[in-house]
Design a protein that fits this description.
Order of helices and strands: EHEEEEEEEEEHE
Structural class: mainly beta
Mean pLDDT: 80
Largest sheet: 7 strands, antiparallel
Shape: globular
Strand content: 25-35%
Distance between the termini: 13 Å
Length: about 210
């Protein structure tokens, strides 16, 4: 299977649909803007399951109607060194979750995420002890440490978003250098509470 590859399998129509309201930043609310929607084909996909290879971590996610997965998360995550292939899960036109698996050989980066760098969290031990609204939740892949961080982008002016991050400690890691899976909602299009619920109920071990 190629790095960052995705396979699809339609699941029963009775799949629970993740339909919690999105979360916009204070900057977005003030300006009246919203996260850029993904391209639409005019045809909404039914609820389905995606098999994802965030090499070497493999897992599956259940998606609501209209949900989609992209292995080209351009503009969502930029790392200057040691970048894993980010995979973005679009829950709808405004809400998304990005997954990545950092090897333990990477240097951690957890201070002042901004301008495309959303932090490097190799394991849950990299999560700052004073991280905002830190909590844990059991997922089918292992325990997730969920917290919030402030993310900024500056060009001619600066904007700040509160975005949730989850570091899932894998119960069955693929090797000794990839022991966690990171999930984050860039610019906080999903709340920390909803991210935790999504991981608890819609994240699964890979088939086979």
């Amino acid at each position: 299977m190629e790095r960052g590859s995705i396979t699809r399998a339609v699941v029963a129509a009775g799949l629970a649909v993740f339909a919690a309201a999105g979360c916009a930043s204070s900057d977005d609310a003030a300006s009246g803007s919203s996260p850029t929607p993904t391209a639409s084909t005019g045809r909404s996909a039914p609820p389905h399951s995606e098999q994802i290879n965030a090499d070497p971590v493999r897992f599956a996610v259940d998606l609501p109607a209209g949900g989609a997965v992209s292995d080209a998360a351009a503009g969502t995550y930029v790392a200057k060194t040691c970048p894993p292939p980010p995979i973005r899960v679009d829950l709808d036109a405004k809400r998304s979750v990005t997954f990545m698996a950092w090897p333990t050989s990477c240097a951690p980066s957890t201070q002042k995420p901004g301008n495309g760098n959303h932090g490097v969290y190799r394991t849950a031990a990299d999560v700052p002890a004073d991280a905002a609204n830190r909590t844990t939740v059991a997922t089918p892949l292992g325990e997730a440490t969920v917290f919030e961080q402030q993310y900024y982008e500056c060009t001619n002016s600066c904007h700040t978003w509160t975005e949730p991050v989850a570091v899932v400690t894998l119960a069955t890691p693929p090797d000794a250098t990839h022991t966690a899976l990171v999930a984050l909602s860039a610019k906080g299009t999903v709340t920390a509470k909803d991210l935790a619920e999504f991981l608890r109920t819609h994240l699964h071990p890979a088939a086979g």
